[in-house]
Amino acid sequence: MTESSAITPEQVEHLASLSRIAMGEDELNALAGDLTTILKNVARVNEVAGDDVPATSHPIALTNVLRPDVVGETLTSEQALASAPAAADDKFLVPQILGEE
Fold it and tell me: Count of CB atoms within 10 A of residue 38's CB?
């Protein structure tokens, strides 16, 4: 990454105005420096990552942790509906929001 490709405070100010984010001059300068550092680090990673390096989303392979599906104690309908503000036909009754039948 060259100095000419560094992010300028003016560019950050333009992006902030497009995003309607008010930023002070100190914030603009700090963010410009941070973004330039991020771009430099991404450029360094691109230099190292060659065709022989596979793309990964995580450095360690992830696996699902599964457990046996065992039926345990459950609530009866009466127990589940005991604290409900409203119930009808053995179901929770909620306000209609879509205007549908």
Answer: 11
